[in-house]
Amino acid sequence: MNAPVKPELSGTDEARGGAPLLSVRDLVTRFRTDRGAVTAVDHVSFDVRAGETLAIVGESGSGKSVTALSILRLIPDPPGSIESGQILFDGQDLLGLSEAEIRAVRGNRIAMIFQEPMSSLNPALTVGMQVGEPIHQHRGAPWAKVLRQARDLLGRVRMSDPDARVGAYPHQFSGGMRQRAMIAMALACDPQLIIADEPTTALDVTVQAQILDLLQDLAKRANSALILITHDLGVVARYADRVVVMYAGRVVETAPARELYARPRHPYTRGLMASVPRLDGDTAKRLVPIEGQPPDLSALPPGCAFAPRCQEATETCRLSRPPLRAVGTRHQVACTLEN
Asked: Backbone phi, then psi, for 194, in 5-degree steps?
């Protein structure tokens, strides 16, 4: 979705009370390759509270999706493995659960909406069976009741004619309808946390806005936390309460959405914003791209991973990896240039 970044942000900036629903601490996920170990998630930490929308932003290969898959322990082993860290969900470390215990969490207390619904839906099963499967799996409800609930869920996500759609197959749906079915499946067991991984990538702009409005509205009504994984800063400006910016598997900046847009502190964050068109900007002014390519994760430089692409980098940046540190009440940045 190539929506322009708008100065008016809808996210709530105030700190929410109570303990975080999800607390990720020093998470490290690696993959074994022919060129050696690749650290796709490198000591990542963040919190999400009930009712909050957290956006995780970055270019392809920054570690966003691997972070999400790590939360649900969906990293294929081999070649991947979660090496260390904690994933505390409602006070319980998900990394310490048995396979049976984590299966009871997936699709039940934590649901994930994947990037491409056509590859996530089974073409041989009706949409109603797939939407209702989490209810059957986690609640033990008989299929007759499950299909009635699936029809109701399709209605909740504003699917036209849910009575007919419940018996249809994925190939009979448009891209927007398939994504609505995925959202209905995610909501089936009233999860406390919804993770949406680029949920509108394959959709046209009008449908993208409808799907994102629907997803946030349903999450807020249920007081569910929402993690929105995206590369689109227009989406972030409109929907996020807080933002985590990732680069080369690391968190380089995190802040409330309003503060991040008002004063981005990391050169990478500023570069992302400068490369997006604005409604209130000079239409004759050229966009400023970030030069270069994302780094090879198997051969990262010793210092800041962004230094080879950063026009402000110093020798210190190239030799020393900056830690993530506070530059405000809820604003953290990993940059040696920020005092």
From this structure: -120, 130
